[in-house]
Amino acid sequence: MPETASELARATSFSVTGWRERTQRDARARGFGRRAMFTDNRCANRVITGAALGATVGGAVGAVYGTYESFAYKIPGMLKVRHIGRTTVGSGTLFGLFLAAGSLIQCGRR
């Protein structure tokens, strides 16, 4: 309990800057803030990287396979582009999902 008037004034003074700094420091300690707790976790970063890498590799393979398939089955005109795009997105999504799941399983073992 403050005994003098000056101690009472210091104890009850409200500094917006100090409050903001304390709030941000407490939020970082709890894992909240501008960057979510999800991005600070090493395992989550590995899963995100695995998904991105899998989507890239899967998309490239899907584009090559879709191009081959569209010419092999003689798909007419602009439907070739649609078929290649569909194959690319589908392959990238699926391979990205499986690589992300594999990364998540590997994180759980460590």
Automatic annotation (TrEMBL):
Keywords: Membrane, Transmembrane, Transmembrane helix. It is found in: Membrane. One of its GO terms (biological process) is protein insertion into mitochondrial inner membrane. Signal peptide: none annotated. InterPro entries: Romo1/Mgr2 (IPR018450). The chain crosses the membrane at residues 47-68, 88-105. Pfam families: Romo1 (PF10247). GO terms for cellular component: TIM23 mitochondrial import inner membrane translocase complex. Belongs to the MGR2 family. This is Reactive oxygen species modulator 1.
